[in-house]
Write a sequence for this structure.
């Protein structure tokens, strides 16, 4: 099994190695800091309405229906109690916790679980490693939410057709599958073309649900008594323990998508998200939920147990179904894009194998497409629709992953507010501890859902968490194996250039190891090249990429360039955890800045390729090693990671890695013995020596090394420029 990745895994920076780099600045969306009334800021707020609030904005489609399904809403106090629970859940958790506080916990302008992880991980030394584990598991649960949200959202919207005409009931599932297939099929085009319309559609959606709610509230204003929290408490006491858990498990659906307020913050900024919430989203949601409660107070018939569409006049049912479908597609799009971003962040943090990433917009770096993730989500969503058949059944699988993530966020915020914000312990524990108690109650309320479908997000979360830990531990074991390999230092490399045959070529070696001084060992990919051919290129550039826990990384310190003599250069490029590197563009930039001495377009790039070999035996204990080998084999090529996906001028050096029965890894590579006599040309099966450089080229085709596989650029050119000073 071969692993198509770099020959050296990313290594952790030693303590203090980052002190020389200035802190990255926070990322700001265009218009974020403009006045509230400015056109740029209003456009940003509208866009945030479309992307950030799609999930929580479509929750009214099924929340009240699920509460009626699990709670006996037969009396006025029961209806007022359920409405009160919705109001205070939205107000305390979505508004108070997320909009008011968590949005301030950005990591260099970015939000989401991995932003929290970047801040909490350093605190593991203070005795909180369990929080890091919980955050990793929470990030895994978000995939479960991303799988269920498109299915339940689109299905609940299409079910409105059956409300308008029962004859449509037989086509609800086929139409849902067609909509989902179309949604995932266009992901490769990116969201730029439809992104501008998202905000306007959601603006119409929130306005429509607000108007529908006001229409019912005016007829039954007594529903406003539910603003008092005592109605909710009394309702739970009357229901009993088991029934209360079922009701709370349905009420929590009103805040699904709450994590999206924080996860998508990097695209719009906290200010725009807060303004959109206060000015439109929060009032519209309250009016709609209270309107549905008023509808129940009226005693009117609830058509097909669908409270939401019962508010819609019969003549407007079909237009509302179309609008709801559009809104749920937008909500699904946000979760799909979030899954792409989450996967990319996990890859950059070394938690998942690399997969193919396609950029869909040359001007907007964050718009990406991952074919493997996309079609995996599509397959899962279609299976959910076919298996569960209705949004009501799917709701049983919903909520557990959401509350698990929210509980983890509250625990993380205790440490962030205490150690990063400088809050006193009583304030951190008191405030976020209160949120945690409430959320634990909701989490417990979702436990009875496990046999009915909530096992699914747990299974997804557990599988992804195990995958992350397996990959992380496997890469660490591989890093240990690399450390045990005997190799040259840079100083020895410089000396060996006088003793080894020379290949008249310029070569760029891709590596994940840092080479900053003469005492650092050379990368394994270069050692393997020397081991294989017994020669060195005339010009050597060692190129590595350093993932940074910031987005974007501070541009002024993007590159670390080290010159080791005239013909050996080391380049390290720093990238933020949500950025994509482009090696050729980086080298062209450095060429223009006169920091590297190779030609901008004519060189040979050499990448390492690992081949994992399992020794026979070991029995069942070899399963983790076999799984790691499969993961490594499914990883994207290293050239994808370096932004060289379609590059034809690549040469690959295979590095064998043997795994014994105990799981210990060994890199099969040897340090070549240096000859005493210097040489000026590479050994060749041909009798003719290589031609000398011409006037306009310092390197010409070397016919003596035509056995080097997969080398396309056979006439590299190196500019004759004066040596650069060390940067």
């Amino acid at each position: 099994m071969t692993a198509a990745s770099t020959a050296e895994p990313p290594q952790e920076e030693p303590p203090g190695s980052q002190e020389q780099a200035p802190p990255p600045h926070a990322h700001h969306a265009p218009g974020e800091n403009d006045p509230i009334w400015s056109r740029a800021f209003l456009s940003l707020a509208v866009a945030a309405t479309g992307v950030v609030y799609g999930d929580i904005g479509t929750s009214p489609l099924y929340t009240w229906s699920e509460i009626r399904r699990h709670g006996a809403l037969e009396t006025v106090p029961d209806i007022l109690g359920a409405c009160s629970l919705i109001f205070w859940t939205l107000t305390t958790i979505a508004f108070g916790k997320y909009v008011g506080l968590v949005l301030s916990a950005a990591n260099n302008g970015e939000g989401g679980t991995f932003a929290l992880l970047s801040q909490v991980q350093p605190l593991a030394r203070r005795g909180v490693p369990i929080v890091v584990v919980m955050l990793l598991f929470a990030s895994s649960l978000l995939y479960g939410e991303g799988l269920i949200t498109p299915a339940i959202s689109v299905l609940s919207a299409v079910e409105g057709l059956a409300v308008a005409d029962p004859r449509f009931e037989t086509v609800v599932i086929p139409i849902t599958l067609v909509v989902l297939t179309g949604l995932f099929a266009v992901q490769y085009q990116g969201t730029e073309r439809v992104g501008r319309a998202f905000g306007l559609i959601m603006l119409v959606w929130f306005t429509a649900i607000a108007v529908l709610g006001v229409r019912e509230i005016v007829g039954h204003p007594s529903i406003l008594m539910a603003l008092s929290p005592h109605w909710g408490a009394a309702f739970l006491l009357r229901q009993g323990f088991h029934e209360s858990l079922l009701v709370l498990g349905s009420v929590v659906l009103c805040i699904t998508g709450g994590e999206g307020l924080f996860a998508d913050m990097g695209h719009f900024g906290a200010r725009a998200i807060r303004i959109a919430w206060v000015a439109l989203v929060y009032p519209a949601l309250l009016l709609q939920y209270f309107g549905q409660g008023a509808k129940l107070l009226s005693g009117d018939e609830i058509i097909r147990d669908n409270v939401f569409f019962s508010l819609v006049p019969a003549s407007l049912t079909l237009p509302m179904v179309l609008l709801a479908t559009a809104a749920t597609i937008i909500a699904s799009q946000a979760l799909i894009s979030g899954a792409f971003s989450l996967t990319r962040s996990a890859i950059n943090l070394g938690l998942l194998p690399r997969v193919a990433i396609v950029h869909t917009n040359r001007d907007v770096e964050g718009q990406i497409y991952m074919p493997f993730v996309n079609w995996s989500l599509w397959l899962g969503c279609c299976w959910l629709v076919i298996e569960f058949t209705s949004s009501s059944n799917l709701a049983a699988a919903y909520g557990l992953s959401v509350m698990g993530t929210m509980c983890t966020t509250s625990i993380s915020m205790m440490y962030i507010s205490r150690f990063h914000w400088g809050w006193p312990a009583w304030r951190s524990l008191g405030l976020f501890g209160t949120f945690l108690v409430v959320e634990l109650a909701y989490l417990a309320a979702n436990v009875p859902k496990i046999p009915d479908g909530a096992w699914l997000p747990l299974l997804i979360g557990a599988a992804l968490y195990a995958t992350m830990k397996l990959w992380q531990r496997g890469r660490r074991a591989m890093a240990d194996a690399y450390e045990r390999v005997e190799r040259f230092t840079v100083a020895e490399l410089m000396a060996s250039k006088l003793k080894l045959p020379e290949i008249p070529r310029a070569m760029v070696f891709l590596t994940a190891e840092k080479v900053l001084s003469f005492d650092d060992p050379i990368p394994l990919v270069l050692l393997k090249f020397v081991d294989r051919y017994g020669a060195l290129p005339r010009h050597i550039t060692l190129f590595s990429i350093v993932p940074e826990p910031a987005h974007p990384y501070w541009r002024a310190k993007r590159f670390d360039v080290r010159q080791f003599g005239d013909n050996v250069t080391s380049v390290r490029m720093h990238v933020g955890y949500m950025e994509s590197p482009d090696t050729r563009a980086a080298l062209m930039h450095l060429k223009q800045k006169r920091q590297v001495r190779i030609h901008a377009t004519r060189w040979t790039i050499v990448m390492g390729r690992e081949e994992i070999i399992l020794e026979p035996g070991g029995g069942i204990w070899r399963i983790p090693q076999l799984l790691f080998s499969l993961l490594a084999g499914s990883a994207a090529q290293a050239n994808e990671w370096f932004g060289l996906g379609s590059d034809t001028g690549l040469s690959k050096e295979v590095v064998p890695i043997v795994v014994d029965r105990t799981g210990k890894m060994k890199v099969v590579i040897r340090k070549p013995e240096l000859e005493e006599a210097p040489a000026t040309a590479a050994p060749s099966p041909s009798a003719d020596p290589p031609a000398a450089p011409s006037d306009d080229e310092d390197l010409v085709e070397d016919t003596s090394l035509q056995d080097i596989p997969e080398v396309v650029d056979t006439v590299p050119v190196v500019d004759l420029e004066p040596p650069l000073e060390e940067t």
